[in-house]
């Protein structure tokens, strides 16, 4: 826990959130900083980082008022920009380094920013709203601080923050992984969904069903589905509950094990981070007097005797001793919902009930829970049994010979080779894939400017230095990335391989010609 | 005496049309009073009502029941008549003249002969005709059974077999083919035989239980207290125990007679009818009837005791009824008098299975179930549906009621679980009806069932059905239970099945198309069925051409087309989901939930669902903009892919590009190349469309569409490429006007670029 390690981390990653509508007068510059990581950096450094970003934003806005700066690639660093709410900017600065693992894909980093913001909004509401609530900024700062520190704790490997790098090229953050189910099981699941949602009487409810870390059914809008799914995989699924160690879905698990032995990870990474960057509340302008619920805190969820998951996280907010039911905001309807999670073996059911429809919250929720136990138990058992029977295990979606990532952009669904299989790829292949994806990201973002409904078909095949084929194919909103190592050398072979894969696993979506 | 009784009973027994009842008799009755008649006899073998006078025998056909049917007459010799029965082919008439003599007439030749008892010590209790292969007629005598066969010239009887035991009295119904012989001091020890076309089966000897009253420690069982009933093809014996006030039931198996529990009775006089497999226990003194559906183990009555209603009767003492005076020319033209209108009058005789003969007034009534009233009286929707699904006589009405009930509970937004149970019952019932082939539109609702032959008409296919049923009947319990629970020992009831008679086939072949009734019993006896067919044809011969118009009329009626109350997925759509959707405005999630339950049910029973239900589901989800869920249903193939579904997705996807893509993908996966290419072009993806068209050899889409699309994209290179494509791959394209037009257009585009 020496200072030296802190120093290296500090140099690796900086992360700030600032509000361009604040601190526009000399002497009030500090006011614009809402969050800065590492928090123990001197204000002068913080301000200089933010100043550069602000300058660039202001400059690029001249040419593109709608969408200003996206990224700065400096020699030693990449600055990734994201504007989640008008005039509120998130900037992440990562150091580039050839010899270490620090080879980044900008879009992957931006997705991290996007994810932390979406999750924050889901639990606490928009940043701007909190700022409006308390213009002093103490409220938002304390919320952001605890939330983001908890969030970053999940990236902690050993004592080091490990953001997604080229090794994660066969993954896509901010998407949902789905379980493939047969028709019969699907019908049973849907039947269960209806029963579940009828448990709250005539109130329109939403539900999400997961099997292990895979989504089975949702009635939420796509964006809300991603958020709730992400949170569930982080903290609610059986794996998240049992390990105590966070895992970014089962996809992430592989990379965790590949980088560090699980034993070396502290039981509460959030705490480790705080130790490192011993939160200088005063310096960041935060105020510890705020009661802040920390939904991403570790080991706070437990499975109750009745099968429902309980937590005392929200007690902090309400200040009560009895566990308070968590609430979240839905993006689409902007409604506040009570979150009820039930777990039976590998099956996790999340029921969202509008807070407005429940007068006495805790009492109302317990009635709903009772209803769930009475009406849906049987179906839950049946569905769990059925899905378990059909479940092919960790490597269910492995296709031998292929390392792939399949992205359905329309539905925000991805499927990929199991992480354990991805780790067998060489560094060269993965770096090549990362580069290739960067290219595709560029093409995609350019296509977006041409027209929203013009989806280009795209196909790139690269022969990497290690003679692996690295392939990307994009067609009408669907993307397929693939690495074929130890493959035949002809392009025809690679193209055939894609064709076969497309026909067998993608209903021929990628075999247009 | 009658008149006295009437005044007091009028209010209770006959309380007008508005009265609550589940069972009714329909006015007008069949009038069968002949001047000089010497009583009324019922020949249950042929379902004939027979009324002899001194020199003639008048005969009314009671099946199908037609009140205005004219009697046929046949001259006979003067003499005492104890009982009278036609042979099953109706060619021979037998009249029991005394305890020792039965006289036979050949109706064709007019020749007669008599059969006498051999010894004076025995006397004939009665006789019946049988379709047993070894004999034709059976005499029941105090000393046992004599089985005779007619000789080939019909001039004498030939004794085939004699079975010796002392007989006190006997009960026989042709419907069950079972004769029960009572013996012993108390007449409670029984021997039974079933003489069916499958052969003779002897039932094990059994005793009936009787409670002893204080006054009489050895009560004697009377013939009137024992009833043989046939319900769902199973044969029961019901025994009235007047002391214990219980109706004991016994079920006959091939190798056993099993006590089945007892029903309470509330009257010292009990009569029993069976209408459409529903057991009616008439509490004659109390003037009410209790209904039991003895299908499952439950012995609970269907509903509360209610009186039997006389329906459609023009008010007593109004002017003489037109219809009667016109048509019943052999009768006195008179309306129902007060005495005749008495329900459960003293003169009432209950005939097997569902007729009531008012011998005093010469009236024959047929008992009907009021399905509407029964279904309205119970709030237990699932059990009502089960009950209705089991009805065969008024299958059309039962079906309509089922549809109404289901629509109503959906409109009332009852809990989905409850609706699901109701739907389960209907789907299971449909599935069963498909299996046994009784659902007429079987061809429409494809389904892999053992019997591929949809039943079209009564006679020929009955035999077919039964054969196919033999294949199927071994395996499933559900088979026998049309939408219900049947917990009895399956094995034994099946082995006994040959004993179950096929009589249903001969009850009303034209009306019920018979096969269904059998199916419930899960019978195996193929021969039995063919015999039944044989009989029904004979019967129509006997009854002559005069009946044909009526029969034809019945067959034309839609009821006859509906032989079971089963509801197909198509009908669910057009009579439940579609109308309900129209009525149910607003949030569609409830209806979606119901449809999903329906799909679940159909999937369990492996019934194919027509795409119109899927299309409706898509419309409902799209209406509420629940596209994510819709996508899930499509991807999991819960809504099975079809062109209709794809087109609906494209239509609903106008507001949601993802949904539209699902529709396009579905077209591609279904290999509907033409539609797919066309839509790609329409969406502006003309290059992709061209590639796809070339790969899959689609040449039905006009080149001008591609060219137009390329032109509107304002890309001269693309336009040139498209032009080149068609020039290369379509022979003769260069000489078409399209080619010339777009060549010119291309030249203009290029010149404008260069300029």
Automatic annotation (TrEMBL), chain A:
Q: Which Gene Ontology CC terms are recorded?
A: Mon1-Ccz1 complex
Q: Which residues form the CCZ1/INTU/HSP4 first Longin domain?
A: 15-125
Q: Which InterPro entries match?
A: Ccz1 (IPR013176), CCZ1/INTU/HSP4_longin_1 (IPR043987)
Q: Name one GO biological process term.
A: vesicle-mediated transport
Family according to the record: Belongs to the CCZ1 family.
Protein name as annotated: CCZ1/INTU/HSP4 first Longin domain-containing protein
Coiled coil regions in record? none
| Pfam families, sorted | Intu_longin_1 (PF19031)
UniProtKB/TrEMBL annotation, chain B:
Please list the residue ranges annotated as the Mic1 domain. 555-728
UniProt domain Regulator of MON1-CCZ1 complex N-terminal: residue ranges: 40-157
Residue ranges for the region (Disordered) are 443-525
* TM spans (from-to): none
Family matches, as InterPro entries: RMC1 (IPR040371), RMC1_C (IPR009755), RMC1_N (IPR049040), WD40_repeat_dom_sf (IPR036322)
Q: Which residues form a coiled coil?
A: none
Assigned GO CC terms: late endosome membrane; lysosomal membrane; Mon1-Ccz1 complex
Q: Name one GO biological process term.
A: regulation of autophagy
Pfam families recorded for this chain? Answer: RMC1_C, RMC1_N
Polar residues bias: start-end ranges: 448-465, 488-498, 507-516
Question: Which protein, by its recorded name, is this?
Answer: Mic1 domain-containing protein
The species this protein belongs to is Camellia sinensis (Tea plant)
Provide the taxonomic classification: Eukaryota, Viridiplantae, Streptophyta, Embryophyta, Tracheophyta
């Amino acid at each position: 826990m020496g200072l030296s390690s802190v120093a290296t981390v500090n140099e690796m990653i900086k992360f700030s959130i600032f509000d361009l509508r604040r601190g526009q007068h000399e002497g009030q510059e500090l006011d614009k900083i809402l969050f800065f990581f590492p928090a123990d950096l001197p204000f002068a450094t913080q301000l200089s980082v933010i100043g550069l970003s602000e300058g660039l934003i202001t400059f690029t806005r001249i040419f593109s008022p709608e969408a200003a700066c996206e990224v700065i690639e400096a020699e030693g660093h990449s600055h990734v920009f994201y504007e989640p709410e008008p005039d509120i900017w998130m900037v992440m600065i990562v150091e580039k380094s050839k010899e270490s693992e620090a080879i980044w894909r900008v879009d992957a980093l931006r997705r991290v920013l996007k994810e932390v913001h979406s999750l924050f909004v889901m639990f606490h509401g928009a940043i701007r709203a909190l700022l409006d609530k308390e213009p002093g900024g103490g409220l938002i700062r304390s919320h952001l601080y605890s939330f983001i520190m908890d969030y970053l704790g999940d990236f902690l490997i050993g004592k080091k923050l490990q953001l997604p790098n080229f090794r994660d090229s066969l993954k896509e953050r901010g998407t949902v992984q789905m379980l493939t189910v047969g028709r019969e099981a699907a019908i049973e699941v849907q039947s269960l969904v209806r029963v579940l949602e009828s448990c709250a009487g005539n109130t329109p409810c939403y539900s999400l069903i997961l099997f292990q870390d895979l989504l089975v059914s949702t009635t939420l809008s796509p964006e809300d589905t991603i958020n709730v799914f992400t949170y569930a995989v982080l903290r609610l699924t059986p794996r998240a509950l049992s390990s105590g160690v966070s895992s970014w879905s089962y996809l992430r698990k592989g990379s965790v094990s590949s980088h560090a032995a699980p034993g070396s990870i502290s039981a509460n990474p959030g705490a480790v981070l705080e130790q490192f960057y011993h939160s200088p509340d005063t310096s960041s302008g935060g105020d510890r007097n705020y009661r802040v619920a920390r939904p991403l805190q570790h080991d706070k969820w437990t499975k109750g005797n009745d099968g429902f998951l309980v937590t005392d996280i929200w007690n902090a907010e309400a200040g009560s001793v009895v566990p308070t039911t968590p609430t979240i905001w839905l993006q689409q309807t902007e409604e506040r919902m009570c979150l009820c999670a039930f777990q039976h073996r590998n099956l996790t059911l999340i029921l969202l009930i509008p807070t407005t429809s429940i007068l006495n919250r805790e009492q109302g929720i317990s009635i709903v829970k009772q209803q769930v136990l009475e009406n849906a138990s049987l179906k839950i058992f049946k569905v769990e049994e059925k899905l378990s029977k059909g479940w092919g295990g960790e490597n269910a979606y492995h296709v031998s010979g292929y390392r792939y990532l399949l992205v359905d952009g329309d539905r925000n669904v991805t499927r990929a080779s199991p992480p354990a299989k991805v780790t067998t790829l060489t560094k060269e292949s993965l770096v090549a894939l990362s580069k290739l994806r960067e290219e595709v990201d560029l093409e995609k973002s350019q296509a977006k400017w041409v027209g929203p409904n013009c989806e280009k078909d795209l196909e790139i095949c690269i022969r990497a230095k290690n003679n692996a084929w690295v392939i990307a194919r994009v067609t009408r909103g669907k993307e397929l990335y693939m690495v074929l190592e130890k493959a035949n050398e002809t392009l025809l072979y690679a193209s055939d391989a894609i064709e076969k894969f497309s026909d067998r696993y993608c209903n021929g979506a990628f075999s247009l010609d | 005496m009658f008149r006295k009784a009437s005044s007091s009973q009028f209010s209770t027994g006959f309380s007008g049309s508005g009265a609550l009842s589940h069972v009714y008799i329909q006015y007008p009755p069949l009038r069968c009073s002949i001047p000089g008649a010497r009583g009324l006899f019922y020949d249950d073998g042929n379902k004939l009502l027979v009324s002899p006078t001194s020199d003639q025998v008048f005969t009314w056909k009671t099946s199908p029941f037609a009140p205005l049917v004219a009697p046929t007459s046949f001259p006979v010799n003067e003499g005492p008549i104890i009982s009278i029965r036609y042979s099953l082919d109706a060619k021979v008439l037998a009249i029991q003249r005394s305890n020792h003599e039965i006289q036979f007439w050949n109706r064709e030749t007019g020749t007669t002969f008599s059969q006498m008892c051999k010894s004076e010590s025995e006397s004939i209790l009665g006789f019946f005709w049988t379709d047993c292969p070894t004999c034709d007629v059976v005499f029941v005598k105090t000393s046992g059974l004599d089985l005779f066969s007619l000789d080939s010239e019909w001039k004498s009887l030939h004794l085939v077999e004699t079975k010796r035991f002392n007989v006190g009295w006997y009960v026989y119904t042709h419907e069950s083919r079972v004769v029960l012989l009572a013996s012993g001091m108390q007449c409670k020890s029984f021997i039974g035989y079933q003489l069916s076309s499958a052969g003779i089966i002897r039932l094990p000897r059994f005793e009936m239980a009787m409670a002893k009253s204080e006054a009489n420690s050895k009560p004697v069982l009377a013939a009137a207290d024992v009833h043989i009933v046939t319900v769902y093809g199973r044969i029961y014996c019901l025994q009235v125990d007047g002391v214990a006030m219980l109706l004991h039931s016994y079920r006959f198996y091939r190798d056993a007679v099993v006590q089945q529990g007892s029903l309470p009775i509330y009257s010292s006089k009990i009569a029993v009818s069976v209408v459409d497999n529903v057991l009616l226990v008439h509490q004659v003194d109390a003037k009410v009837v209790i209904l039991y559906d003895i299908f499952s183990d439950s012995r609970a009555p269907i509903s509360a005791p209610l009186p039997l209603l006389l329906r459609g009767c023009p008010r007593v003492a109004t002017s003489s009824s037109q219809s009667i005076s016109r048509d019943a020319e052999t009768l006195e033209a008179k309306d129902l008098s007060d005495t005749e209108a008495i329900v459960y009058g003293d003169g009432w005789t209950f005939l097997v299975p569902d007729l009531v003969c008012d011998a005093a007034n010469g009236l024959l009534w047929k008992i009907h179930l009021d399905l509407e009233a029964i279904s309205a009286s119970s709030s237990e929707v699932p059990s009502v549906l089960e009950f209705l699904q089991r009805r065969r006589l008024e299958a059309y009405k039962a079906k309509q009621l089922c549809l109404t009930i289901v629509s109503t509970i959906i409109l009332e937004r009852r809990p989905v679980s409850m609706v699901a149970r109701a739907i389960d019952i209907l789907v299971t019932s449909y599935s069963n009806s498909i299996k046994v082939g009784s659902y007429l539109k079987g061809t429409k609702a494809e389904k892999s069932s053992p019997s591929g032959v949809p039943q079209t008409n009564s006679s020929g296919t009955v035999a077919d059905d039964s054969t196919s049923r033999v294949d199927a009947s071994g395996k499933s319990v559900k088979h026998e239970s049309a939408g219900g629970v049947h917990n009895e020992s399956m094995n034994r009831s099946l082995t006994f099945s040959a004993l179950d008679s096929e009589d249903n086939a001969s009850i009303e072949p034209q009306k019920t198309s018979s096969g269904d009734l059998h199916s419930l019993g899960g019978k195996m006896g193929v021969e039995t069925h063919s015999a039944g067919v044989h009989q029904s044809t004979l019967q129509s011969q006997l009854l002559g051409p005069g009946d044909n118009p009526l029969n034809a009329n019945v067959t034309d009626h839609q009821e006859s087309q509906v032989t079971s109350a089963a509801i197909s997925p198509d009908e669910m759509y057009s009579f439940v989901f579609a109308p309900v959707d129209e009525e149910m405005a607003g949030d569609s999630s409830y209806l979606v939930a119901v449809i999903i339950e329906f799909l679940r049910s159909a999937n369990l029973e492996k019934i194919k669902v027509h795409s119109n239900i899927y299309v409706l589901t898509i419309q409902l989800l799209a209406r509420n903009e629940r596209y994510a869920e819709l996508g899930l249903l499509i991807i999991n193939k819960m809504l099975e892919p079809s062109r209709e579904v794809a087109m609906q997705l494209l239509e609903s996807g106008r507001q949601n590009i993802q949904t539209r893509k699902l529709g396009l993908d579905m077209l591609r996966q279904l290999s509907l190349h033409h539609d797919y290419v066309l839509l790609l072009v329409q969406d502006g993806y003309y290059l992709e469309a061209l590639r796809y068209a070339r790969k899959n050899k689609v040449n039905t889409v006009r080149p001008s569409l591609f060219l137009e699309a390329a032109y509107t994209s304002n890309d001269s290179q693309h336009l040139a490429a498209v032009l080149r494509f068609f020039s290369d791959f379509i022979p003769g394209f260069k000489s078409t006007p399209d080619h010339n037009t777009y060549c010119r257009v291309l030249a203009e585009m290029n010149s404008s670029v260069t300029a």
